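Sample pair:
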Amino acid sequence: MISVILLGAGNVATHLYKAFSNADNVSVKQWYNRTRSSISSFANEVEITDSLNELKEADLYIMAVSDDSIAEFSSALPFTNRLVVHTSGSVAMHDIDKKNQIGVFYPLQSFTKGAEINFSEVPICVEVYEKENLELLRDLARAVGCKPHKITTEQRQTLHLAAVFVNNFTNQLYRIGHEICETKNIEFEILHPLIEETAKKVQQMSPFMAQTGPAKRNDKRTIKRQLKLIEKDEHEAIYKMLTSSIKKTHNVLSRSMKQVKR
């Protein structure tokens, strides 16, 4: 049985608690947050506390706190030589205070409170300073049905950057698409099958091969027509930037020049 103490009460901490609670060989021994009210709804399930001095001994302490507070928070922990990890994609492992054994347990997923997550489909990126702690983090990932991936800080930070592009930026494009639909009283749900199909395709082939659309085809008439439909300057700028990026990626301009020369 792996004993865990959760530190923090954000989206990641809440989803980790649910995943650990459903695991046969994981015990959430305690859950800390500086504001008890944030986790008071779980008081009948797990011991909660708002005092660092009340923290018990456990196999692992998981800091699911904001990136900016990891260093300061870890230095405030009132014990030494215990395994303390953070869950951030962008913060270096060595930002954790060295008075304890340090590591990273990073679930690479977008977490939103109230949205159900199938943890068995979440990759867990693990990193340790002391090699003897690696297997514990791997075992914890496997306990919730996840596949652990041993990676370096640089690899994890690069993955996080890539995740911003494929998740956060893509979601912003969804929002723009939603807004464009609303201007003409169109249900955004009509686009759901397209969104799902695109997500499926990039799991079966490279995004390069999956690319379609007027920019890849260099369909100048469609591009010009769509630019006239756009009502906001911000949306127009994004459309032009992404169109240019797709053309460069697929060498549309160079191919067009070759066709002209022929």
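The first strand starts at residue 2 and ends at 7.
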